[in-house]
Amino acid sequence: MTIHLKFSLTLLVALVGWTARADLSSSDQEALRKTQELLRNQQQREKYMKESPDARANHQQLEKLTGNKQTTDSVYGLSAEIFAEIAKDTNGDPVLMQQKLMEAQKNPEAFLKSLPAQHRKAIEEIAGRINSNRGPSGKP
Predict the structure, then answer these.
(1) Residue 37 lies in a domain
(2) Which of 78, 104, 115, 131 is positioned for an S-S bond with 13, CB 3.0–4.6 A?
(3) Is residue 125 in a domain?
(4) At what angle do helices 69-89 and 94-106 cross, to 10 degrees?
């Protein structure tokens, strides 16, 4: 696994994690929908980042990593999909969701292997775009 893919996956887990801590206070579908909307909607993300230094810091790391808005938006969109999978796998239990996210941060490769094939492929495609956006020096 390339360094950019590992970092992308770690950052993806962090993004999903800060939204879980912030928005999923119950296991109902409305909380899931709102969290996914936050991840998919740039205006909502910007508003949330004004209120959350952690979210702002994660977003700045993501922008620095991706090097462009399109790839940044792709990461957020994929995060919304993975968040739904985690909610489904844990029956929306916020404690179990948080445990799963903490495990993912400790072992991103195992987390990647646990994802459905379409999500693994999307992560690899995003990592490929990140690598192609970087020059020989590894910088965007």
Answers:
(1) yes
(2) 104
(3) yes
(4) 130
